[in-house]
Each structure stands twice: as C-alpha cells, then as structure tokens.
Amino acid sequence: MSDELKRKIEIINKYFEGFSNYIELQDLRDFLLFTLNSQVSSNILAQLGMGGKQEVINLPFNPAFNIYYQKINLISAGNLIVYCKRESISDKFIIEKDDPVLNDYLSEMEKDLAFRTREKFIIPKISDCTPFQEDENQALALKIDDLYHDLKSFMAVTEPNILFVIDGPQESDPDLLFAFNMMPEMPGKTDKKVLRMDVYLDPEHKTRDTKYLKREEDYKLTFLHEIKEIGHAELFKSSFSLIIHIKSFKKPF
To answer: Pairing relation of β-strands 239-248 and 162-166?
Structure first.
C-alpha cells in the first residue's frame, strides 16, 4: 500500500469514529428530501424492499425522543437509522402534498419531482425497540470498498441517488463524500455486521452550500442550490443526486 493511500484511509476512518448505526441529519428539510428521494425505485430503501406503498410516503415519528426517522433494514448488516430531531410538525396522521405545513421545508418544484404519483405522507407514531434488546444491539461496522481520486469518476461509477457528506472539521481538512455499497456480505464470511462504502475525499469543499449535483450525458457536473425548472428532455438526459450533509453519528437517546 502506498503511503498516500494509507494516509487517506486513516483520514476516512477517523471521520467515522463513534459511528453506531445512526445518522443524524441537520434539519427537517434534509430529512424530508432524504425520505422523498429514498422512496423511489432507484434508491436505497426501495432496493431493500422498504419503499412502502406507491400512493403514500411513510414518515415515522417517535414521540418518545421527538425524532422523525427512517429505519433501513440492511439484511446481513442489520439496521441503519437515519433521523432528525424535531417536535411533530402536525397532529394529522395524513399530510397531503399541498398541505401548507410543507411550504416551510420544500419548494413547489421539489414537491412535484419527489412526490410524483404519490400525493401524501402518513405519519405513524412508532418507537423502534431494536436498540434496547441485547441480541439485536450489535454495532454496525463500516468498511471502505472503493476510494475514488476525483469527483467525476466517483459520480460516473457509483451514480448515487443520495450523496452523503461529512464536512471537514477545519477548512484545511477535506470533506468526505460517500455512498453506501449495498452488496451484502457472503453468509458465514464474518460474524460482524458490515456496511461497505464508496468514498471520495474532497479538498475543495465542492458540495458546500449546495443541495443537488447534476450529472449530464457527457459527465459534466453542475452544483445546484435548488432546482427551479426542469424540462422533460433535461430529466431524460441528466441525472440528479441529492446532497445530504450529516450532522452527527450520535444516538438520539
């Protein structure tokens, strides 16, 4: 192994110190965008059979800890919880697409693109009890699969629907961009619950203050603060990745 590659792996492993099956998002807007973009056919949840019914979008709320969350069953790797701390935004069980409460978090274009054929959220109140049962409480280990050396290569090969980012602690530190590699571990290969990732270290902080990354047919990348108008031809010729900056890996309790 080269010294440079070893140094990068050490940096990445340091960013994931303290990881314990939980990903806390920065705010409810990010969580709603994550939920809307992860319950379609090309995303993490749907690949694992977690997409829910086509006509509704599940938005579970845990009243014991005041969190909205998505519990992602990773098959051989156990569970991953993506959450946002926030008091309930509505007492309704059903929130329609045109409910005014969503206007504080989503633009009209975002709602049109993400809801598609579905027109409403349902907000079931649920407490996940898995962490409080010893036989289910095994930590999830993160392993690096592929490390990319430029962003264009990373986006072209991984084609992530959702791109997670850990901001560098100092301006001189690179940001860590990663996408989950959903290939399961071979049965019996390890007793650990392992989740693999494809990663890229970004020393230029290219995804700061951006929400979407557009990839065109010629692999040109464009960073967008928001999506205002998109024609059908553009949707056909381009792909978009949602950029999610992670707040912490802390447990919500």
So the answer is: parallel
pLDDT at 129 over 80: yes
70-100 pLDDT, tens digit per residue, is 988 766 556 789 999 999 999 999 998 888 9
Residue 24 near residue 252, CB atoms below 8 Å: yes
Give every CB contact of residue 162 below 8 A, 6+ residues apart in sequence: 34, 37, 38, 43, 44, 179, 241, 242, 244
Nearest Cα neighbor of 22 from 134, 122, 137 is: 137
SS3 41: coil
Cβ contact 83:68 at 8 Å? yes
Whether the CB-CB separation of 225 and 209 falls below 8 Å is answered with: yes
CA-based angle 61:95:38, to the nearest 5?
65
The span from the CA of 188 to the CA of 3, in Å, is: 33
Q: Which residue has the tokens 């975002």?
A: 110
The secondary structure of 52-113, three-state, reads CCCCEEECCEECCCCEEEEEEECHHHCEEEEEEECCCCCCCCEEECCCHHHHHCCCHHHHHH
Domain boundaries of the chain, sorted by first residue? 3-16+140-248, 22-132
- Say which range, 6-10, 128-132, 155-159, has the weakest mean pLDDT: 128-132
pTM for this prediction: 0.84
